[in-house]
Amino acid sequence: MPPTIRFLGAAGTVTGSRFLIESGEKRLLIDCGLFQGPRELRQRNWEPMPIEPSTFDAVVLTHGHIDHCGYLPRIVKRGFSGPVYGTPATAGLLGIMLPDSAHLQEEEARYRNKKGYTKHKPALPLYTKEDARETLGLVRTAPYQKPFSPVPGFEVTLHPSGHILGAVFVEVNVEGRRIVVSGDIGGYDRIVMGPPAPLPPDVDYVLVESTYGGRSQEHRPVQDQLEEHIAPALARGGVVVIPAFAVGRTTLILYHLRQLMEKGRLPDVPVFVDSPMATDAVELYCKFGDEHNLRVDLLKSASCPIVTPQIKLIRKVEESKELNHLRGPAVIVSASGMATGGRVVHHLKNRLPHRDNLVLLVGYQAMGTRGRRILDGADDVRIFGRDVPIRAEVASIRGLSAHGDADDIMRWLGTARRPPRKTFLVHGEEDGLKAMAKRVKDELGWKFAVPRYLESVELS
Ligand SMILES: [Zn+2]
Fold it and tell me: Which of 93, 110, 341, 459 has the most beta carbons within 10 angstroms of its beta carbon?
């Protein structure tokens, strides 16, 4: 029997990245992500996996985003006890992301029990902080671009993918087949992360992400956009609130703000990073300074390439509460990115009702989120059971995504020396997958497939 690959997630959708490669009795799982977004998808996190996770021999991760690693504590709870491999930076991110995710799961269960929104009594969390701790005990690190064997018969190599700190695409060699799982691919000529490494020669099968399959991310320079919105708000003494995803996005914003201040395009005002997770993540970017580009620009002036005298990292709740009395001009960067939770919700409640302030949205705002309602120009938004009037200026900017656009992905695929036997399009919504399929067919002339959820394919 040839090896098989099973698409246990991120098939026909963006989240829940999980791909199981089986060879004989051995099973290697690439990524173990949480399904996120609409209820039907999140429900899949509760369904038993079609193959008992206790029979998996090892897991290899592409990176530390929750839709790629956030299901790990659940499989550990269900009996998985093998090693989990990632780069050292990914291991560092797991230490931040998994306990936080467990905390959110526990909060949600508590909320459901309090409100009675549950069919199960009592509602239980998908996993607990204890499960997350146990998972972290299974994590092993693997270096970039050095083959290792997580399971007998499998040789794995991790190649930088340019997406976020520690992110890789995974090359698996098994029974003479060479398979590449892209994870999330970054762009070329980016400020923080370097470009993705080229595909290894003679790849037989590629699983490629299609998040932005249909889109080119053309936009004006990010610093021009930031200056245009932030400078007037600071000039009128306002507080600028930037909801931002804790990992990656916050670092990038800090970089741009610092550059703008150094060039005199923005005044030197205090910048508060009010998110313990973002603070931890920023510190990790400092710790792994040689894995991204910021050191080149900034190392000369600080031991950490990101944290500067203007930037104040806030951890304690009391310090966060003190920010309620802060007078402008100042900037507060806080998670979550779509204002669905986290400390940014408090800041929005406090700052939205006043005209001088600016709320600047810097990432994708999904339907049904507070961020989306604010972006769409609503007069008010519900926060902690109260309708908070929106009088502050609201603006959004583009161009800060850690994903490459369709052109970047095509450029990366173009580094293959010969066409793979087959390319599997994963990690995309319907539109993105269709658009990507068309480009792979028309521009590369490659054979491709769009696998269905739970489909199993023989790599013959
Ligand atoms: Zn990602």
Answer: 93
CA of 391 to the centre of ligand 1 (A): 34
Centroid of ligand 1 to alpha carbon of 117 (angstroms): 31
Mean pLDDT for the stretch of residues 334-350: 90
Mean pLDDT of the 178-195 span: 92
Helix pair 430-439, 406-413: axis angle to 10 deg: 40
Architecture of domain 222-396: 3-Layer(aba) Sandwich (3.40)
**Which residues have CB atoms below 5 A from the ion given as ligand 1?**
65, 184
Q: Of 101, 19, 98, 11, which Cα lies nearest the Cα of 56?
A: 19
Strand 26-30 and strand 58-60: the pairing is: parallel
Q: Pull the structure tokens for residue 200.
A: 């290894």
Q: What is the pLDDT of residue 214?
A: 72
Percent of the chain with pLDDT over 90: 69
Domain 4-215+402-458 sits in which CATH superfamily? Ribonuclease Z/Hydroxyacylglutathione hydrolase-like (3.60.15.10)
pTM, full prediction: 0.87
